[in-house]
Amino acid sequence: MPRHIVCLTFDHDHLSGFIARGMTSPTAISRGEYDVVVIPRLVALMERYGIKGTFFTPGHTIDSTPQAVLPYVEAGHELAHHGWTHRLPVTLSREEEEEEIVRGNESIRRISGRSARGYRSPAWDLSPHSIELLLKHGIRYDSSMMGHDYDCYFARQGDVAELMKPFARGRETPLLEMPISWSLDDFPHFEYMRLPNGSVQQGLMNAGNVLDNFVDDFTYMTRVQPDFGILTYTFHPHVIGRGHRMMMLERLIQRLIEGGAVFMTMEQAMGEWLARNQGARKAAE
Ligand SMILES: [Zn+2]
């Protein structure tokens, strides 16, 4: 019996992404705040189709605007770690990065009563310390890397990438990597951004065209991995929340259901992957 798992994930940056980029004008803040409008609609949409998703939420979002987070926590969606601020780990010292993980864990425990199992790095760029620190603080899976499309793998620690030498792989760790892709993220496709450094992210793509891309990646999974695969989509409430994109998200869900998708939280998908790969799990421990 083929089994094709889809994880719908939402990076609930709220104000944190704008503040971390130095964008603190009333208009920038309002762009982040718009997700307070969107979250109940998203929760209702997923409820209609009986889907549970995963929300990667910075501690800053939880502690600033808990009323934006509670609707999905109370509806039983997974709450996962996305730093405390939205600063990139690769820009932080080891101490600063550890403080982010500890503080984010505290925020998650306070609002949900349970610890985060999963982590996704702000802007998807881990530091050389991330894997070790995540394991130290109880994180079981990461979702920030791009080394596969339809399968999980164990994250490595201690890679050595030096310009004039062959690349040296580090050792596998027990941290499960559940990979993502920029091509399956709403942010670069849709979000128009003029950044403080003068660069522009154009975004504003036709939602129907993006829908075709997103569906084709699922269909291709059923061809190249006919028995089992996991596909993860990434959305941002303030981006996907605009009307034409919410219509696209609902059409995506419908087409994935028609294609036989099984929807799961990342934590559930991790559990199923580990159960199917007992040997690999033992080797990494
Ligand atoms: Zn984010």
UniProtKB/TrEMBL annotation:
The lineage of its organism: Bacteria, Pseudomonadati, Pseudomonadota, Alphaproteobacteria, Hyphomicrobiales. It comes from Reyranella aquatilis. CDD domains: CE4_HpPgdA_like. Belongs to the polysaccharide deacetylase family. This is Chitooligosaccharide deacetylase. Residues 25-264 form the NodB homology domain. Transmembrane segments: none annotated. It holds the Pfam family Polysacc_deac_1. SUPFAM superfamilies: Glycoside hydrolase/deacetylase. Is involved in generating a small heat-stable compound (Nod), an acylated oligomer of N-acetylglucosamine, that stimulates mitosis in various plant protoplasts.
